[in-house]
Amino acid sequence: MTDKALPIDQQRKNDHVKSALAQQEIAKNSDFDEVRFVHQSLNTVDFANISLETHWAGATHALPFYINGMTGGSQQTKQYNQALAILARETGLPMASGSISAALKHPDMADTFTIIRQENPQGFVMANLGAHHSLENAQKAVDLLQADALQIHLNIPQEVVMPEGDRDYSMWAEQIAEMVDKLDVPVIVKETGFGMARETIEELMNLGVKTIDVSGRGGTNFIQIENERRDHLDFSFLADWGQSTPEALLESICLQDQVEVLASGGIQNPYDIVKAISLGAKAVGLSGKFLHVIDSQGIDAGIKLVEDWIQFIRHMLLLTGCQHITDLKHQPLVISGQLAEWAYQRGIN
Ligand code: FNR
């Protein structure tokens, strides 16, 4: 039920959470099922010395996954930010806020974001903002969270279907280039569940971007979420728009030695994380899954999930013959079905 008393942007934040949680209840096919390892019967790994350490956005991270940008901007979503920040603090996961735009427009909403830093003063925290924002706003977002990095999100499909969405993208590239050039924290450009193409990644590299989260289709779907908020023009025919996360990682493969690639979108289990890293991701972000665990089972269950996943990933390295998580990238993979067809038609091998 929509609460008519709330301003539209605060109501939108609450609607997003509600719809994203509902999407987590629906089982989906995953393109990660089309990615298989080749079992080898001998390896030289010592379990005691396995390392999950990764390096991206100017820092070394003990764990290869992170809590991706989601909430803040309404009092209800402040509670999620607080719970997620506690999860980040207790497990050591890096964490991004949701778009800080809401706090720039309504300063009384700032506490819905600053709670992240309050709960986790030492952690690696990323602030998040849309690409239409000015350098000044980007600096304010970083300052608000004392952020270690800034995520800039690209979300054209969401804006197109959002009834009150932005209709002018003419300044985005210019704004990104300025932020990369002038901010003194790393700028990570991310998609929002629609995946990136090789051409987009090349354009971002030309703008100076060094770290990119290809955030693909397969999990939270913002075309569906915004379509539910419309009362005319039904865009449900666009439900499968965009590249899945494995497709987007394949798109990035020939550029991975020149740019840091992160993956997110539809990650449901530690096997997906291991496969994404094998396809070249430096680290893997999760949004909907963590939101759902926190919402349905609480913070302690979230902590237990992360601890279990760390163990599963360590065992997967043992099985695949990788002493270090970055060795996954050199594992031979077999790609089947639609994913293989995508690679073939896009000339990726
Ligand atoms: C998001 N996402 C998002 N991304 C972003 O860059 N800024 C934002 O403010 C938000 N807001 C947001 C709210 C909610 C409730 C969810 C679930 C997600 C997108 C998110 O970071 C990610 O790119 C996609 O959700 C795909 O990942 P999952 O959810 O499939 O793991």
Describe the structure.
- 43% of the residues lie in helices and 13% in strands.
- The chain has 349 residues and is an alpha/beta fold.
- The strands form three sheets. It has an eight-stranded parallel beta sheet. It has a two-stranded antiparallel ribbon with strand order 1-12.
- Strand 8 (187-190), helix 8 and strand 9 form a beta-alpha-beta unit.
- The chain is globular and about 65 Å long.
- The termini are far apart.
- Ligand FNR is lined by residues 16-17, 20, 68-70, 98-99, 128, 151, 153, 190, 192-193, 215, 219-220, 264-267, 286-289, 291.
- Ligand FNR binds at residues 16-17, 20, 68-70, 98-99, 128, 151, 153, 190, 192-193, 215, 219-220, 264-267, 286-289, 291.
Bound molecules: ligand FNR
Identify the overall geometry: globular
Radius of gyration: 19 Å
Task: Note the main sheet.
Answer: 8 strands, parallel
What string gives the helices and strands in order? HEEEEHEHHEHEHHEHEHHEHEHHEH
Distance between the termini: 49 Å
Low-confidence stretches: none
Please provide a brief summary of the model.
With 349 residues, the protein is an alpha/beta fold. It contains 14 helices and twelve strands.
Spell out the blueprint of helices and strands.
Layout: H1 8-24, E1 35-37, E2 54-56, E3 59-61, E4 65-67, H2 75-91, E5 95-99, H3 101-105, H4 111-119, E6 125-130, H5 135-145, E7 149-153, H6 156-161, H7 172-182, E8 187-190, H8 198-206, E9 211-213, H9 222-228, H10 245-252, E10 260-264, H11 270-278, E11 284-286, H12 288-297, H13 299-320, E12 333-335, H14 337-345
Helix pairs in contact: 1-9, 1-12, 2-4, 2-13, 11-13, 12-13
Bound molecules: ligand FNR.
